[in-house]
Write a structure and sequence with these properties.
single chain; alpha+beta; two-stranded antiparallel ribbon; 2 helices; about 60% helix; 2 strands
Length: about 45
């Protein structure tokens, strides 16, 4: 398996993980950037 195929497989595996992080909105805090509060879970996802 070459590198592009490995990267694609890894992306497919990570999709549910990032989706759960965004959907659950874990209460780990917020970041204020340019006057807008953004949750850390949204930044990670």
């Amino acid at each position: 398996m070459n590198l592009p195929n490995k990267l694609t497989l890894m992306r497919i595996i990570l999709i549910p993980i990032f989706t759960l992080i965004l959907a659950l909105g874990w209460p780990v805090g917020t970041v204020t950037w340019l006057g807008t509060k953004i949750t850390v879970s949204a930044i990670v996802a």
